[in-house]
């Protein structure tokens, strides 16, 4: 489905590329031995290297390099065995050295690809231009004092991966799907926690518009958008703004803008014309980063199964529909949970229960799969009771609710409450007869040709048996006498 | 290559160095002198020569991912001219 902006003189096409900053999961910082963990008392996760003291030299963290390589492999991207670090120069109070160590001309990861899926089921491939390693900056607080800004350098020097997409994105929906997919891959790989609220994943959004068939027009960059929803909104309003400018005979200036969610508009950063003059040059403190092919292959051999592969395997191995498989692999914990439930059982029944009643219960109780009140084994135990005929599907729902409340096993609940399904045909026949005796009028109507009443009789018999009748046997018994 | 006064002014601003208009001609002359000197390097034929980024074939040494540093707030803040409690402070910078 093509996303078009209806302008005064015809439709406009949207062109978007995303730069995602993903904080690398590691113990210590990219170039210093200070802790990279979130939080901590202000300025305690700071070494003299991070604070930009004279004479301090950066030494690179092997694990951060490994995380970048794993991510590159997960994005099916080219791994550059030799890359380099450059200084990106600018002045800001939370950047003590006056430059950010980044990779400009020779990034560690080159071209890759991410496949996204849209609401209508169609798929598209979004190209990855590059991924490079760089340092995060510190944090400024502007609301502590009327005249001063307060600076905390705990985050300064933590490793970031900047992941740059090709300008392949053509709608807000595609941008959202791309970010969700990228976050899923990063989480599977364990290279970034993808938590946008805490700022461990942030996006810069490049937006331009054009008429169909035209080359690219001037783009604007919307900086530091911190949720997927805001990215989608920012694209939408920025595209409309640009269309208006072009249609009124103006031209869009290449500039950096901010998205204001409260007003749903983008605003020019009152920035100096020099904002982009970073005067990159090779960092003389750092030799080229050279890694071995064998080391890369060792990392590749230990990559976890990624979402696309897992989804395909779920379809093939468990015979569940593509949509269900997609829901189950959205998070690794969910996929693991499902596999535990499905092992040795009917995989479709397992999928229905996990996606249906189980997810609904988590939503209702505000729990996550990590602190679920029902374990995968417990849910599996209940499915066993359905499969071996101990309980029917209807009773199973009650048992499930009871498990949710008490944490008891399904078998214990069935035993304690006497919920075993009745398969004794004598008892079923008796219940059938009692229902017929009580409803002579309905019986007459049925015999008079009103076939639909069969369902009514099934319902009455089940009710008389407190829901415990074996549905197949009840049907059979009814058919016989009717 | 030669720098005009506007470029010299811009370089100074990027480096956050305040200069008087009256100093511009002298600075322009000095910078152009340096550039002229460096431009002599262009006379060397380097066709087919890989850029040299260090001596020998040394590559970056890597360290293991362990926390070995930090927890030294007093040292970190020791040169801060206007620390407030655990923070550095600077004149307010809000756009």
TrEMBL record, chain A:
<keyword id="KW-0436">Ligase</keyword>
<keyword id="KW-0808">Transferase</keyword>
<dbReference type="InterPro" id="IPR042114">
    <property type="entry name" value="GatB_C_1"/>
</dbReference>
<comment type="subunit">
    <text>Heterotrimer of A, B and C subunits.</text>
</comment>
<dbReference type="InterPro" id="IPR018027">
    <property type="entry name" value="Asn/Gln_amidotransferase"/>
</dbReference>
<dbReference type="GO" id="GO:0070681">
    <property type="term" value="P:glutaminyl-tRNAGln biosynthesis via transamidation"/>
</dbReference>
<comment type="similarity">
    <text>Belongs to the GatB/GatE family. GatB subfamily.</text>
</comment>
<dbReference type="GO" id="GO:0050567">
    <property type="term" value="F:glutaminyl-tRNA synthase (glutamine-hydrolyzing) activity"/>
</dbReference>
<dbReference type="InterPro" id="IPR014746">
    <property type="entry name" value="Gln_synth/guanido_kin_cat_dom"/>
</dbReference>
<protein>
    <recommendedName>
        <fullName>Aspartyl/glutamyl-tRNA(Asn/Gln) amidotransferase subunit B</fullName>
        <ecNumber>6.3.5.-</ecNumber>
    </recommendedName>
</protein>
<dbReference type="InterPro" id="IPR023168">
    <property type="entry name" value="GatB_Yqey_C_2"/>
</dbReference>
<dbReference type="GO" id="GO:0005524">
    <property type="term" value="F:ATP binding"/>
</dbReference>
<dbReference type="Pfam" id="PF02637">
    <property type="entry name" value="GatB_Yqey"/>
</dbReference>
<feature type="domain" description="Asn/Gln amidotransferase">
    <location>
        <begin position="336"/>
        <end position="482"/>
    </location>
</feature>
<dbReference type="InterPro" id="IPR017958">
    <property type="entry name" value="Gln-tRNA_amidoTrfase_suB_CS"/>
</dbReference>
<comment type="function">
    <text>Allows the formation of correctly charged Asn-tRNA(Asn) or Gln-tRNA(Gln) through the transamidation of misacylated Asp-tRNA(Asn) or Glu-tRNA(Gln) in organisms which lack either or both of asparaginyl-tRNA or glutaminyl-tRNA synthetases. The reaction takes place in the presence of glutamine and ATP through an activated phospho-Asp-tRNA(Asn) or phospho-Glu-tRNA(Gln).</text>
</comment>
<dbReference type="GO" id="GO:0016740">
    <property type="term" value="F:transferase activity"/>
</dbReference>
<keyword id="KW-0067">ATP-binding</keyword>
<dbReference type="Pfam" id="PF02934">
    <property type="entry name" value="GatB_N"/>
</dbReference>
<keyword id="KW-0547">Nucleotide-binding</keyword>
<keyword id="KW-0648">Protein biosynthesis</keyword>
<dbReference type="InterPro" id="IPR017959">
    <property type="entry name" value="Asn/Gln-tRNA_amidoTrfase_suB/E"/>
</dbReference>
UniProtKB/TrEMBL annotation, chain B:
<keyword id="KW-0067">ATP-binding</keyword>
<dbReference type="GO" id="GO:0006412">
    <property type="term" value="P:translation"/>
</dbReference>
<keyword id="KW-0436">Ligase</keyword>
<keyword id="KW-0547">Nucleotide-binding</keyword>
<dbReference type="GO" id="GO:0050567">
    <property type="term" value="F:glutaminyl-tRNA synthase (glutamine-hydrolyzing) activity"/>
</dbReference>
<keyword id="KW-0648">Protein biosynthesis</keyword>
<comment type="function">
    <text>Allows the formation of correctly charged Asn-tRNA(Asn) or Gln-tRNA(Gln) through the transamidation of misacylated Asp-tRNA(Asn) or Glu-tRNA(Gln) in organisms which lack either or both of asparaginyl-tRNA or glutaminyl-tRNA synthetases. The reaction takes place in the presence of glutamine and ATP through an activated phospho-Asp-tRNA(Asn) or phospho-Glu-tRNA(Gln).</text>
</comment>
<dbReference type="GO" id="GO:0005524">
    <property type="term" value="F:ATP binding"/>
</dbReference>
<dbReference type="Pfam" id="PF02686">
    <property type="entry name" value="GatC"/>
</dbReference>
<dbReference type="GO" id="GO:0016740">
    <property type="term" value="F:transferase activity"/>
</dbReference>
<comment type="similarity">
    <text>Belongs to the GatC family.</text>
</comment>
<dbReference type="GO" id="GO:0006450">
    <property type="term" value="P:regulation of translational fidelity"/>
</dbReference>
<dbReference type="GO" id="GO:0070681">
    <property type="term" value="P:glutaminyl-tRNAGln biosynthesis via transamidation"/>
</dbReference>
<comment type="subunit">
    <text>Heterotrimer of A, B and C subunits.</text>
</comment>
<dbReference type="InterPro" id="IPR036113">
    <property type="entry name" value="Asp/Glu-ADT_sf_sub_c"/>
</dbReference>
<protein>
    <recommendedName>
        <fullName>Aspartyl/glutamyl-tRNA(Asn/Gln) amidotransferase subunit C</fullName>
        <ecNumber>6.3.5.-</ecNumber>
    </recommendedName>
</protein>
<dbReference type="InterPro" id="IPR003837">
    <property type="entry name" value="GatC"/>
</dbReference>
<keyword id="KW-0808">Transferase</keyword>
């Amino acid at each position: 489905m093509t996303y078009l902006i209806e302008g005064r003189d015809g439709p406009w096409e949207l062109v978007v590329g995303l730069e995602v900053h993903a904080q690398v999961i590691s113990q210590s910082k990219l170039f210093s031995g200070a802790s990279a963990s979130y939080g901590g008392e202000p300025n305690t996760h700071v070494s003299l290297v991070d604070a930009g003291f004279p004479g301090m030299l950066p030494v690179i963290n092997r694990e951060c390099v490994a995380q970048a390589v794993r991510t590159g492999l997960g994005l099916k991207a080219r791994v550059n065995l030799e890359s380099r670090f450059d200084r990106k120069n600018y002045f800001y109070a939370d950047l003590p050295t006056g430059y950010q160590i980044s990779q400009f001309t020779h990034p560690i990861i080159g071209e890759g690809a991410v496949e996204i899926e849209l609401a209508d089921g169609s798929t598209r491939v979004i190209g990855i231009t590059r991924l490079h390693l760089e340092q995060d900056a510190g944090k400024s607080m502007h609301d502590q004092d009327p005249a001063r800004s307060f600076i905390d350098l705990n985050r300064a020097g933590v490793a970031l991966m900047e992941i740059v997409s090709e300008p392949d994105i053509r709608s807000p929906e595609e941008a959202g799907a791309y970010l969700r997919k990228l976050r899923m891959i990063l989480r599977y790989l364990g290279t970034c926690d993808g938590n946008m609220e805490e700022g461990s994943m942030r996006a810069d959004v490049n937006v331009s518009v054009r008429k169909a068939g035209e080359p690219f027009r001037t783009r604007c960059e919307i900086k530091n958008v911190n949720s997927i929803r805001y990215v989608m909104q920012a694209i939408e309003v920025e595209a409309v703004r640009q269309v208006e400018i072009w249609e009124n005979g103006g031209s869009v200036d290449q500039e950096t803008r901010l998205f204001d969610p409260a007003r749903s508009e983008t605003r020019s950063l009152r920035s100096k014309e020099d904002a982009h003059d970073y005067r990159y040059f090779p960092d003389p403190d750092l030799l080229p980063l050279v890694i071995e092919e064998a080391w890369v292959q060792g990392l590749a051999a230990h990559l976890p199964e990624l979402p696309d592969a897992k989804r395909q395997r779920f379809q093939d191995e468990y015979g569940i529909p593509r949509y269900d498989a997609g829901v189950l692999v959205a998070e690794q914990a969910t996929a693991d949970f499902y596999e535990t439930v499905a092992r040795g059982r009917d995989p479709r029944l397992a999928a229905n229960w996990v996606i249906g009643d189980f997810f609904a219960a988590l939503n209702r109780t505000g729990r996550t799969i990590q602190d679920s009140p029902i374990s995968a084994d417990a849910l599996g135990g209940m499915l066993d009771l359905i499969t071996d005929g101990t309980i029917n599907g209807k009773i199973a729902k009650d048992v499930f609710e009871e498990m949710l409340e008490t944490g008891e096993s399904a078998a214990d609940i069935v035993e304690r409450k006497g919920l075993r399904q009745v398969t004794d045909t004598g008892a079923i026949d008796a219940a059938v007869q009692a229902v017929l005796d009580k409803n002579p009028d309905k019986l007459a109507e049925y015999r008079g040709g009103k076939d639909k009443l069969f369902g009514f009789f099934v319902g009455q018999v089940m009710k008389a048996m407190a829901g415990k009748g074996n549905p197949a046997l009840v049907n059979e018994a009814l058919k016989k006498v009717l | 290559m030669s720098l005009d006064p506007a470029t010299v002014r811009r370089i100074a601003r990027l480096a956050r160095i305040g200069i008087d208009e009256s100093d511009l001609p002298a600075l322009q002359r000095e910078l152009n002198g340096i550039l002229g000197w460096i431009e002599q390097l262009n006379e060397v034929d380097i066709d087919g020569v890989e850029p040299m980024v260090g001596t020998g074939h040394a590559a970056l040494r890597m360290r293991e991912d362990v926390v070995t540093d930090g927890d030294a707030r007093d040292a970190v803040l020791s040169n801060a001219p206007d620390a407030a409690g655990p923070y550095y402070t600077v004149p307010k910078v809000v756009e």
